[in-house]
Amino acid sequence: RDFLPRGSGIVTRRPLILQLIFSKTEYAEFLHCKSKKFTDFDEVRQEIEAETDRVTGTNKGISPVPINLRVYSPHVLNLTLIDLPGITKVPVGDQPQDIEYQIKDMILQFISRESSLILAVTPANMDLANSDALKMAKEVDPQGLRTIVVITKLDLMDEGTDARDVLENKLLPLRRGYIGVVNRSQKDIDGKKDIRAALAAERKFFLSHPAYRHMADRMGTPHLQKVLNQQLTNHIRETLPSLRSKLQSQLLSLEKEVEEYKNFRPDDPTRKTKALLQMVQQFGVDFEKRIEGSGDQVDTLELSGGARINRIFHERFPFELVKMEFDEKDLRREISYAIKNIHGVRQTGLFTPDLAFEAIVKKQVVKLKEPCLKCVDLVIQELINTVRQCTSKLGSYPRLREETERIVTTHIREREGKTKDQILLLIDIELSYINTNHEDFIGFANAQQRNTQTNKKRAIPNQVIRRGWLTINNISIMKGGSKEYWFVLTAESLSWYKDEEEKEKKYMLPLDNLKIRDVEKGFMSNKHVFAIFNTEQRNVYKDLRQIELACDSQEDVDSWKASFLRAGVYPEKDQTENEDGAQENTFSMDPQLERQVETIRNLVDSYVGIINKSIRDLMPKTIMHLMINNTKDFIHSELLAYLYSSADQNSLMEESADQAQRRDDMLRMYHALKEALNIIGDISSSTVSTPVPPPVDDTWLQTS
User: Mind telling me which GO cellular component terms the entry cites (predicted)?
Assistant: First the structure.
């Protein structure tokens, strides 16, 4: 049968996946019009041309979208062939300028698969060493195990020349050798020369040609058919064991999911009640596991709700508290004004007024409200996200999922108000009484002797605070570009190494006078960035005034910032505030007032440190008690009652169409896998196969 389009120029403009299937009757069918059987193969050719034009247009355009064709015939062997466009270098018509690269990419998509055999078709009158088809085959099949080279146009070679040495695999050896064929000419096609007559003419050519008659039985289209069929047989034999294990693993993975459907009875009156109780119970278990943590079924891809909330408590919240810390110059100015205002018209007294201390402390404590409320908001967001993740398992029952999410989220929002009220009450309690007898408070006597430089707390020297990978993001391309290093943060320095073995140190940066600032995420970048800079305007690393450090997520950035806080590296203050107060910072103080300011400044620092420590301890406890534990109790004890009161059971447990379809598909897949395993078990393992040819020296063929 002759049904593939022929002509000049590029004729195959879409991949054609051709399945040849042995059958007693002869017909063809396309995947895009499956219901129609083609018995006239001229119509098949016309349909290929029409389907090609439908996607690519009529002016030589190309497309990687394949046409799928099945041909059933008593004259074919079971094979799947893929006809790919020939490599063209000069664009014509509607073809893009990079037509050569597009076609090569399209071809590589198919020939790169390990399961495919490559037919590299090359005319005999062309230099084989420069064959594009052979070079591409060599790229994806360097051992030559999958490549069969077909030599065409043997009848068109110049008189006195032949391809004997090539076909005998002597001149340019390849592992699977060469097969020569003689196809019909365009004149034969135009003259409607029959395929059988063409095969007979091909056979006669090889038998009568003095250079090829001794290998005529290894040449021609029929021999090519046999070779391909044998290779397919070998491939099936080789892949059967892996295919069997793959099917068995798929069957095992479906077993658990199918278990609940095996005994599915839609007429069971208790089915919906059982399902509702089971779903609500499972939702409560999932929520608790995500919050409290669990040893079984641990998620290794992302942090769960409980781990994220832990980060908020111990990394994000302390960082927000530090951001609220006072500016040194502003604080001293406020203390001096407070002292002067307390004395009024009288001259500055000999004694430091404690009222100034209380006024400044209360002003600093009030500032804690904002980060505390922000902490509650962050925890609420994580709780709501956790609820959504847990309700995703209720997707089989859309109404139940919607109601569960609404009821639990509403309860969390109700608890939000009570939690925030309690936290504000904690801060108001701290404001109501300034306890100067606290055991950790330094007192007036110690404050007068204390040096401001010793006030800055640092962790134990050389103590490693954190290790991890970070990318230095702002190194120019000329100097190597962005690069990932292994960073080690201690109480005194930040070092980075080539890798985690920590043998090849790249640099060590002392932490003195360093601060952190935020950096906006790049437009095309997926990285989250923060920067470290020197407050004295010195270069931090080489010629860089700041180094930008990039992480994969905002959570990692927040975590690193919290680690830097522990090392005494604080965030940059708001520049606008500093600029506004710049003019007022030039005031002068007499020595007596300066001593009083210094004393109160030390007292305030000591007392606010006590308050911060107390708040950092009480905040997680308050949120856990009033919001998280309360929500867990609500889910276990009251959620079911709220669900029953919100809607009737039938509407809640109405199954989605997707779920019904999923159940049917799963059962169908389960039975198909069992049937496939039975078929594979019946296939004889004694299938005749041919050994792989030995390797040859094919270094003459250079890949592109």
Answer: centriole; clathrin-coated pit; clathrin-coated vesicle; microtubule; midbody; neuron projection; phagocytic cup; phagocytic vesicle membrane
